[in-house]
Amino acid sequence: MLKKLTYITLFALTMTSCSDTLDEINKNPNATETPLAPYLLTGSLKQGADLYWGSDNNFNSSLLFVQHWAKIQYTEPDRYDVSNTSFTSLWNTGYATLITDLNTIINFPADQANTNYKGIALTLRSWTFLLLTDAYGSIPYKEAGQKVTPAYNTQKEVYTGLLEDLKQAQSLLGTTNGSVTGDLVYKGDITKWKKLVNSLRLRIALRISDKEPALAKQAAIDATSDAAGVLSSNNDTFKFTYTSSPQQNPASAWFETRDDFRISKTLVDKLTDLADPRLPIYAQLPSDATVGKYVGGANGLSNSDANSQGFAKTSKPGTYFLTSSSPAVIASYSETLFNLAEAVARGYISGNAEQLYNDAITASFNQFGITNAATISTYLNQASVKYDASNYAKSIGTQKWIAFYGQGLDAFTEWRRLDYPVLTAGPATVLDGQIPSRFFYPGTEQSLNGVSYKAAIAAQGKDLLTTKLWFDAK
Amino acid sequence: MKKKLNIYTCLCILLISIGIKAQETKPLIQSKLEGTVIDAVTKEPIIGASVNIKGTTHGVLTDFDGKFFFQTGQKFPYTLVVSFLGYKKAETVVNENAVVISLTQEQNQLSEVVVTALGISKEKKSLGYTTQSLKNKELVDTKETNFLNNLTGKLAGVRITNSQGDMGSSRIIIRGETSIAGNNQPLFVVDGVPVDNSQLGSVGGATRDFKNAIADLNPQDIESLTVLKGPNAAALYGSRAAHGVVLITTKSGKSQKGLGISFSTGITLSQVTTLPRFQNTFGQGSNGKFSFVDGKGGGINDGVDESWGPKMDGRLIPQFYSNGEAVPFVAHPDNVKDFFNTGLTYDNSVSVAKSDDKSDFRLGVNNQKQLGTVPNSEVNKTNFSINSNYQINKSIKVGVTGNYITTNAPALPGGPSGNRAAGVMLQFLWFGRQVDINQLKDNRNVNWNNSYYSNPYWNAYYNTTSQQRNRIIGDIHLDAKITEDLNFRFRTGIDYYNDRRKYKIKYGTNGTPYGSYAEDAYTVSEQNTEGIFTYTKKLNDDFSLDALGGFNIRNHSDANNYQKAPRLAVPDLYTLTNSRDPLTSSNIYSRLRVYSAYASAQLGYKNYAYLNLTARNDWSSTLPSSNRSYFYPSVNGSLILSEALNLKSNTLDFLKVRGGWSEVGNDADPYQLSTVYNFQTAFDGNPIQTSSQKKLNENLKPETTRSTEVGLEASFWKNRLHFDVAYYNTNSFDQILEIKTTASSGYNSQLINAGKINNHGIEVQLDGNPIQTENFKWNVGVNYSRNISEVKILDYDKQIQNYTIGSSGGVDVLASVGQAYGALYGTAYLRDANGNIVVGANGLPKADPQKKVLGHYTPDYLAGVTNTLTYKNLELSVLVDASVGGELFSGTNRTGNYTGVLAQTLPGRDAANGGLNYYINGSTKTLLPSGTAPNGATVYDDGMIFKGVYADGTPNTQVISAQEYYKASYNISEAYIYSSTFVKLREVKLTYNFDKKFARKIGFDGASITAAGRNLFFIYKDVPNIDPETAFNTGNAQGLESLALPTTRNFSLNLNLKF
Fold first, then answer.
1. Which of A184, A244, A463 is closest, CB to CB, to B849?
2. Does A97 touch chain B (CB under 8 A)?
3. Within A208-325, where are the H helices?
4. What's the angle, vertex CA A453, arms to CA B823 and CA B850, rounded to 5?
5. Locate the TonB-dependent receptor plug domain: which residues (chain B) (predicted)?
6. Which residues of A touch B743 (CB under 8 A)?
7. Predicted confidence band at B140 (pLDDT cuts at 50, 70, 90)?
8. pLDDT band at residue B22, thresholds of 50, 70 and 90?
9. Which residues of A touch B567 (CB under 8 A)?
10. What is this model's ipTM?
11. Which domains are seen in chain B, by residue range?
12. What are the pLDDT digits (tens) for B95-130?
């Protein structure tokens, strides 16, 4: 009897001695510890596009601030009645998804990712940092991803650091450096990536132009004199093209279930004034056929006033933007041309500013499918459109604002920098007549990275929507 | 039937008698004796009492009538020794006359036996810690579909938070939250088998709140439930002891002499309580305007799902059911209440039990059908149980227990993500107060609003969440007597279940135009195998030893498989292939194994001093091999002063002091050692990988909890008053925390091994019988507990001040250094130096950019008072319980203020409600104390002024509309923080126990009937419109209420019959 019991006990106890089995048991069967560069790249492009084109950072915030869209219901964000929990996704996804995944590629040993992967990753990481600093101001940059509580860097440090990063990205990229898969945007065409790098360098050069003109000039020269060139046609435009549900355009997905946005009255009025042929693309006719014309929704109204404009009597954004396969444009040929025009106007590089300006508008028309030369020249020849060399900021600012339709974050940044067009806060807005100049830092920064956060706002100014950022000179 | 039984019983008794008699020498004289054994107080016969002739081995058991009979060679007079469990032994000298022997109930702490860790029974007096038990009766008389709710208010130091609605989870916490981030629910052990109490797939708030798994048990099968409060009592359970253990013993056939059949039937009616108080003056719309065309903006504000519309004074307005015709716009005050049904639960149980000298068994079956308060909601549950033991030979006994539980819920309220397609209260807080719910009931295709919602009946009947769970809990065990002192017990037990949920959203639902279908399947398995040697020896006259040593192997695994067709191809076909889009899917599998070895010893001295030692070592698969093995000891002792110092007097019956110290460990969840990357849905044939955003830790150590407990127990005046007080102090450290980190660190969270939390508190139990006569007894039971927690450290570098436990509606629940556990952290009003709220030029309050701690969810103290009055066969018991202190954030009040549906949004909405007159001058509102407005501008009477000051300190004078006023604080969490203090009339119960003689006359061995009411009403509460007790889920993020289903008030009637 006792013998039997001893056997049972011994049998059970022998099981306890195999430590290896316990290690095997704890091997994670649900996820991998060894990611692959192409899969990370695909993910970064898709998630980057979602971030840039989705509701939180685009149509429920920056696109309202620049009065491209307006809210007809739940108008709180359109009245700037937002809190420090409103702008967390740009921060959280930007850092913990995009920058972390891209750093993984950058830090891969050579046999896991060739230098083209690394160059692309560095380019996309620079673009992400750029979005972050444009929106928030000082951000963790040098210590990002290195420390649990990274210190913030000033905008000047970030922009100049990014110029260096992009220079390095340019040197990593080369048509003979190996092939790249998982690249949903340029399909592995390294020459296009090299152009994008230079266009981003040009973009940053102008960001700092009001503050660091000498550095800006050098950067503009570097960017435009690089052998790879800048984006040179709409085929070069950096855009992420969606397919169909569930991989559909975020704005299209939103409109499937909700109906709280309209095109802004400010934009509709401007396009109407200019007889701009992009209006039927940017907007739909109101669903009530008796209206028969494009009617924008006013920004910054109380919910009741917004409602009373009539859901059926106001224009939704154009179907071009609301179909499931609509692209998320991130860096367009047209923007590069506007940037070249401004670089010329500022005397950084040589060229014909007016011609570049006209080319930029033409590129924008082409981007939206308007190719009729007569239509274009009629438009360009209007006095209200014509390039004004005495006030390039006004001409470029206004037309860039129109061309940026849908690219809320960049439209918001360039509007702050160029100060054109002149926008007025809606009647029910809560910032004493001001329009936001930045995003709030996520509220969690106060609790999770308090020391760094406090140091940052001590230098930059209070963590308010109206605090002007370094690049925003006026 | 009855006759047969009696014959059978007699036969048994006869056989036993013969069996005993067979050993005797042949009698010389035939002496015959008849007798009856009865309870001294109730005069009821005692069945199964053992009657022995003193000085012989001759004994018999009493039958169903308490009668016994001797025919022996023993000469009269001789002495009988009569004993029965729970009664004092009696000796009587008898002659040939029939005799009636009265037994008095034992009320002596000295002999009370309780169940302790590993199911070992011990004398309560020998323990250095508290345990508290509930008997079957306290669980079954009031039928709760989640029996944990029956514990509320009855046990000191145990906090139960009720489910939301009537089909949800209940959270149980013993002595506060000792783990900052981990599961704080106690371990449940049923007949020695650890069982799972997970709440799978619930995220809290307005989402489906699935029942936690322990609710599967049928309270009818539970013999007793013992709570081991914390590590001191539960140290032998090692890793799983830190949060206490609930030991459940199910009924067996052991005490059933002969065949016994029990039958119980009950019916429970439930009605919703604490519905929000709605206003019935203003209807749907905005800015006082409304007219319906298509319900999505085609008319005037008809897409608006708020009640800021016109006055419901009977004015004629086209409405959703009127086809454009203008019809009276009137209030339907009960339009929410009328949506809910009276819930109905039928509960029927039958059990059969029997035992003889070799074997015993009990078979039980229970069926419960619950029709919920939300239309179409339904849960059906059937439990089958078996418990059987067989004595193979003198030294070996084997046994088996088994439960098969099948739950089938065709529709449960609330959807997978609290969305507009299925959230019940969501659509009533975004609502038009004029909506006639009956118009919606009759035709599910019409709706009051087409922008966001579907008809609530459409949601209830078509957008369903169903659940099907099949579960087996059971074990086989063997007990062997190796020598007189040494015993061995071997047990292998399993708890295994499948849980499948199906989420349907119908084609054509607003917000989900193509509908959707998802299947969510869980499989959970918990296996434990243990062997325990026990050694009990009286060493000499003074010392006794009680020791055990054993091992346990635990294997746990769970798997989840989720698949969703995001948009259906054709309506009304709910299959995963009926999809327009690629399916979204995920699957997770996890398992762990723990080996354990343990030992304990109890040394007793002269029955009044005891020393208990325990030790355990675990080896867990979830920790790195270098830290895998961890050891923890405990020591405790008790001293019965009343015996040791001979203090017993007429006043003092019993006095005991006790104390102990223990250390227990805790391992991690599986797969927490290496950082991983996840796959996301591939894009057009391109796989996507991305960071899990969580940095794991290859150097994890086990968590440690150290606890000290001291206590005093006393009884007075012949046990008329019993008193027990305990003080404990628990420090948990090296806690495994997934701390949230700023995303700029590269991860949204990182796993560290650092946190430290202290909990200390006292528990008082009082039990007294102020009146005790032959027919009438009044018993008062009081329990009180207070727990104070403080988060000491989160990381050793002291970089991290806050750990986020959870969030809802902009409020975080934090473990914040230096604060009590569960700080509510959110946006506060901006205030000036004098504490006034600062408003902008527009008259609206401003938010402080710095978030603040706005309260804590943990209560200051809990108390419960039960009064039980017994008159003859009638028993009335009343339980009142209270939870004092603590705060909560109410999403219902926040949303209801925003949408203007709540009665509390009436003040200021028109002149009759104190609104100020104003007119609009350009775009500014200007007060108009009297007269007419310039230029004939419209005068409005819904002006209000927010109480506050401008930045310069001058009082706010800017008038705003009531609509703006009540919306102004939507993003200011502080406005919706309330005290969660409440006092509740928890339970009133009236039981009639039929006189046994009478019962037998009508063919039963026993019968009782109970009428009960539960959650009857609040005697006191602070928060309006909701039940402050509602749990968010069973997790640690409490103090958040987010459009929770109303809780229910239950009335039940139960009949128990025993054949």
1. A463
2. yes
3. 213-225, 250-257, 265-273, 279-282, 303-308, 319-322
4. 45
5. 124-245
6. 91-96, 442
7. confident
8. very low
9. 245
10. 0.91
11. 2-103 (2.60.40.1120), 113-250 (2.170.130.10)
12. 888 888 888 776 666 667 788 888 888 888 889 898
